[in-house]
Amino acid sequence: MGDAKNQARLGLCIVGGVTLAGLVLLMAAEAGGGRNWPFNSFLLFAGGFLWLYVGVIYRAQQNLRSRVEGADRDQTAVEGTLVHALDRLRAGDLVNCAEHARLLPGKVAVTFGNATNALDVLAQQIQRSSIEVASAANSVNEIASELASGSSEQAASVVEITAAMEELARTASMIAENATTQAELAQRAEESGNSGKVAVEDAVQGVEEVRKRIAGIASRAEILGTRSKEIYRVLDLITEIAQETHILSLNAAIEAAAAGDHWRRFSVVAEEVRRLAQRSQESVDSVRNLLDEFASSIRTTVVATEEGTKEAARVLERARAAADAIEALREASGDSARVAREISLATQQQNAASDEVVLTLKEVSHVVQRMADGLKSFSDTADRLNRLGLIIQMLAQSFHLESPHSLKHTAESWAREVQRRLGNWEAIDRLLQELIQRQPYVECLYFYDGKGGQVALTVNRHIVGDRDVPPAVKSGEGFSDRPWYKAATQEEHAVLTQLFESLLTEKPIFTAAAPVYDKGQLAGVLGLDINVDSWTKI
Amino acid sequence: MSSYLLLRRGGVLWGIDNAAVTGLTRRGESFRIAMDGEAPLSADEVLCVVDDLRVQPSAALCRFWPGAAAGVAGLAVHGELPLVVVDPRQPPAMLRLEEGDGTDG
Amino acid sequence: MIAPESSSKGANGSGRLGGLSTGSHLLVQAGEYVCALPLVSVRRVVRSLTVHPLPGSAPELEGLAEFGGEPLPVLNLARMVNAAPGANPAYPVTVVVWAGPADAREIMGLAVDAALEVADVPSASVVAGGGGFLLGEAPIAGRVVRVLNLEALGRET
Lengths: 538, 105, 157
Description:
heterotrimer, B: mainly beta, five-stranded mixed beta sheet, three-stranded antiparallel beta sheet, 8 strands, globular, C: mainly beta, CATH 2.40.50.180, six-stranded mixed beta sheet, 1 helix, about 45% strand, disordered N terminus
């Protein structure tokens, strides 16, 4: 570019000089009157300068040509490197792409490297994000499943509640009918109670009269009893006097006996006194007997009247109790009738409310069902999201990045470790068992020597469990025809297969395979069976 | 005329020659009567000393109350209450002081 | 005090009294028996006296009483004559008597269920008993009366 500019400047100078010379000569010619020698001078100068210019240009062009040819060669080399790098970039192998890019010249390498790095960062972010998306999709799927399940249960519950409410509504209707009937019965009972109250009041009145009369009789009997007690006291007094008189008469007889001969007349008097006392006593006894009979009768009467009074009191009490009970019953009947009417009204309202509730529940049931359907489709969407997340993850894994999340990178780094142990199958076997512990999502890890048909294989028992490895798998039968084997050998780099069903677990898996080279020759292919469930949970 | 100390013991009113009594002390709820030359006696209640006590012998009492007959001098009356007069030399057993009859007060 | 009336009818030695006079007697109820107390020995019939019991005394001795300023041993006549107890007496009395031998009589009370009457007990009608306090039995007004000898009350029977 600089040479071209110099040449252009040189050209301009030459043209400028020729032009200037021409003008000078022209002026000189104008001034000198003759035109020939300037014109000839001009032609001479112009010719000279032109030949000079052509010579210079020719030389410059020669240089240019050689440089162009060199540049062509360099460009071809750069193209090849660029093609390789772009090819690796196409394949998503940003690691090897970056290695090829470092071979590009100067700024191209820097710029390409920066672009590759930026793409690497973006791809890693995409991988990380894809993992998060897959994880989120998985969570959404789980939640959707739970919601769908819960919604189904809810719908079932709503159906049950609706059925119960319908039953309740029917029961409420029956209760309303019964309440109405009860109200009528209570009304009749109330009326009967009113009649009964009047009757009992009359009976109580009658019993009260009887009680009063009996009380009157008892009072008079009591008076008689009091009188008879007074008579008894008088009789006791008379008896006392009779006894004292009797004793006095005896003492008189005793004194008379001691008085000697004069005792006879005195003893007669004493004897008469004694007889008088005896007759008095006999009269008293007779009166006492009569009084005893009278008192007995009085007592009997008193007892009878007392019992009658008590019985009348009991009857009165019972009558009053009956009156109270009837009154209470009447009040209760009235309350019951009122309550029954209220219950009837309330149950009718409840009935109407139950019907509304049933309708509402049916609407709720529809809504819940729609929710369930919505959740079902949400669940389907979540399922698709889950698969989409998986697809995104798989797409993200199409990039070979220098990252622990990159399966291709893992496969190629493990392949390099296998390469270091080529020829020692026992070491390779131990290596595989050690490697499979590093990544819990690897279901099965195997290295297949395509030529000799040897296989080193190990399974992850945390995923596979106690299942037996099929003999064909153990022997590597048909491995060279498998897609993973073919793709790895063709690409000459780590590849990922599509999803397929595992022979071991019957779960979806895919294979990350990387070729192993020994001195530029294919020694075999390392395969990693990735269990999708375990991988998406990482 | 002798004077007599009247006392009650076992629900019976007793009279004893006051000249034979040398001392009277309280023993808890009862009384200890010290006798001249004789064993002390016990009383539930000590009433008084009387001078004019007419003692009458009673063969019926001796006949029908043999347990006390030997110590009974006779019967008397004081204030319309009959009492048994005892011989201080051989008082009836129920008048004798027994161990455990209260404590000296 | 007068001397008891002496019997002018001598004893015939055939179960009848001999030596002791009979005649007016105070008939008293003592339990189931009717007893006859010689009137000459009876001083007074009074309402039942307040008796002060004597611990340890014989069951016949009810206790001591006071009568006219004199001390009185009171005996239960029914127990004295071994009579079965009768109905509860309505007006029990105490018969104040002189008892014991003539040279050593003392006044005492006999608690009886009732004092009935003064009756004459002919000596011929008395069927002599075992002697001592129970003189004998005699039919008086249709009932058998136990005639008692109060002079023997102070002696051993």
